[in-house]
Design a protein that fits this description.
Blueprint: E1 7-12, E2 17-22, H1 25-31, H2 34-45, E3 59-63, E4 77-82, E5 89-94, H3 98-104, E6 109-113, E7 120-125, E8 129-133, H4 142-153, E9 158-161, H5 164-167, E10 175-177, E11 180-182, H6 187-193, E12 196-202, H7 213-228, H8 231-239, H9 245-250, H10 272-277, E13 281-283, E14 293-297, E15 307-309, H11 313-319, H12 328-341, H13 345-360, H14 379-391, H15 396-399, H16 403-410, E16 420-421, E17 424-425, H17 435-443, H18 456-459, H19 471-488, H20 500-511, H21 519-539, H22 551-555, H23 572-583, H24 593-598, H25 605-608
Parallel strand pairs: 1-6, 7-12
Antiparallel strand pairs: 1-2, 3-4, 3-6, 4-5, 7-8, 9-12, 10-11, 13-14, 14-15, 16-17
Helix pairs in contact: 1-2, 2-19, 2-21, 11-13, 12-14, 17-19, 19-21, 19-23, 20-21
Bound molecules: iron/sulfur cluster.
Amino acid sequence: MTTFAGQLLRINLTNKTSRIETIPEEYLEKFISARGLGSKYLYDELKPGIDPLSPENKLIMLIGVLGGTGLQGFSKWAVVTKSPLTGTIFRSYTGGNFGVWMKFAGYDMIILEGKAERLSYVHIDSQDVHFHAADELGGLDPRNVQRILKERHGARTSSACIGLAGEKLVRYAVITSDERTASRGGVGAVMGSKNLKAVSINVPVRKFTPFDEPKFKNLIRAQIEMLRENPRRKNMNTFGTPYITLGLEKKGILPVKNFQEGSIQGIEEISGEKFYALKRAKSGCYGCMTRCGGMRDVTAGPLKGTQIDGPEYESIYAFGPNLGITDKQFIINANAMCDYYGIDTISTGVCIAFTCELLEKGLISPADVDGLELNWGNKDAILTLTEKIGKREGIGKILGEGVKRTAEYFDKNASDYAVHIKGLELPGYEPRAVKGYALSMATSNIGGSHMYGRPRPELAGKIDPFTEEGKGESIAQVQKEQAIEDSLIACTFGNSGLNMEKYSEFLMAATGIDAYSSPDKLMKIGERIICLERCFNIREGLRRRDDALPVRMTKEPLKNAGEASGQIVSKLDALLDEYYECMGYSKEGVPKKEKIRELGLEEVLRDLD
Ligand code: SF4
C-alpha cells in the first residue's frame, strides 16, 4: 500500500500507440517522483545533442507521490523536457487539476514521444488512450480549447494544452491547464513541436491507500490545523503573491527597467492591497485551502470582458517596474494577452525590456522593431509587441526566440544588456541585491530560475545578503532541499512551515520506503538529482563557463536601490569554487567520479568518460 500509482503511461505520437509500464522500485527509492523521476527518465532516454524541438525530444508530465492524497499543497504537477530556450534539462511546474487526474487515471507520469503527423490531441479515459485530429482546435487559445474538450468528453475532463504560440514554436510558449500555466523554459514549444495541441483526461476519482493510513490521516489533520492560523498562508489566501512586491522593492530586489535600477516611483500603486481591491473571486489548485489565486477583470485585448487568474508577482515585475510601469490594469491586461497566446510573462517582459533598453541606448532604431516607439512605459507599443510575439509575427518572430538569441540577432554589443542565465530570462529577483541568488541562479541546471534554490536565510535577514564569502555551502544546502521539494512538488505558497523532518514523516506514512526515513537520506536524494541533471548538461557540452551571470550583474553597480545601491557581484569565481567543492565537482563544474559513485549514479560514468 502506497500513494504512488507505481506506473507510467508512454504515448508514441508518431505511431499512435501507448503502453503502460511499471516504474522500477529502485527509481522511486533513488529519485522519489516528479523532478527526480523525470530527470532520471530524460537522462536515460534522450540522446545527447538532439534538437529540443525535434521528435527525438520527450515531454514528461508528472505528479508527486503525495499529490491527490488530501495533504495540503502537494497536488501541482510538473513537465520535464529538454528546453528549447536553454538546451539543458528542464522542469516547469503548474497547478490546477490535471496532475491529480493523471494519478486518478493510474499514472505517476506520462511520457510523450515522437511527433503526430498533423495537429492532434490525446484523450485518456478509463478504457484506453484515444488519438484525435485537432485541426479545428488549431490557433485557439487555451481557455477555448479546454471548454471544447469538456463539451466533447464530459464536464469532468481536465486538459493540458497549448495556445497559438506553442503551435508556432515560440521558444517560451507555455502549457496551460485550468487557469494555470507551466510557464518556463518553452515546454509549450516542445508540445507544439510534437503537433500536440492537448492531452485530456476524464476518469473517475481513485483513492490511493497510504502505507500507514491512520498515521497519514492524523498528519493531514495536523497540517490543516497548523495552516489554518498560519499568517503566511492567510496572507497568500487574501492577497496572493502580489503581497511581496512592496517588501522586495524596499530591499532593492525588484528589478526596474531591465535590471538597471532597484526602485520606481509609484510602487504603492501595485501593492498587494491595490491588487486585492481588484480581486473578484478566489481560485486555486486541486484540494488546496490556501487558494492563492485571484480572478480579475480584463479591460483590453482578446480576453477583454472576461476575468483571468492573476497577476502573480512575477508577472507584476515583468510587465510593471521592469518596463517602467506601475499601472495595475495594464499589468492585468498584458498578463491576459500572454495567457491568450500561451507565452511566459517573465520571458516576454524581459525580451521587451531588453528591446526598450537597446532603443534607449541607440543600439537599434524603431525601424528594427517594426516602427514601434518602445519607450519605457509606452503601454500601447508594449501590448502590440506582446501580441506580435504571441503570433510570431514581424519582429515578434525574433523576440520569440528568447533574449539570448535576440541579442545575437541584433549584435552590436546587445548581449551586454540581455538578462538571462543559460538562455533563461531572469525572474523578478535582482542577483546583485541577494548574492545567494546570484550563485544559485548561476549554478542552476535549468538557467535563471528563482525556484532552483531560494536563499531563504538571506531573504529572511539571517545572513547578510550583500556578502559574497561563504555562500557556496548555504546555496548547496538550499538547492538540495529544493530538489526534494520539487520531487514532491511541495507548493511554496500552500504548505508553509514544513521542513525535511516533516517531508520524511509524510513520505514514511505514505510509502513506508526506508530511503525516505530521515532528513539526511532525503538530502542525499536531493544531491543525487542535482548531480544527475548536471551530468545531463555536461553531456550536452555545458561547463563552468556556462555557470555565468548576465554581464550587467558583474560590471555595473546597481542603481537607485536603497541599501542595495552600488552592489555588484565581484567574486563569482570564488563563489563557484566554493560551491563546486561543496557539491563534489571539479574546477570545471563536472561531478567527480567518486561523488558519482557515492550517489549511486554509476550509469552516467560511461557518458562522462
Ligand atoms: S497555494 Fe496556490 S499555487 Fe499553491 S497549491 Fe494552493 S492554490 Fe495552488
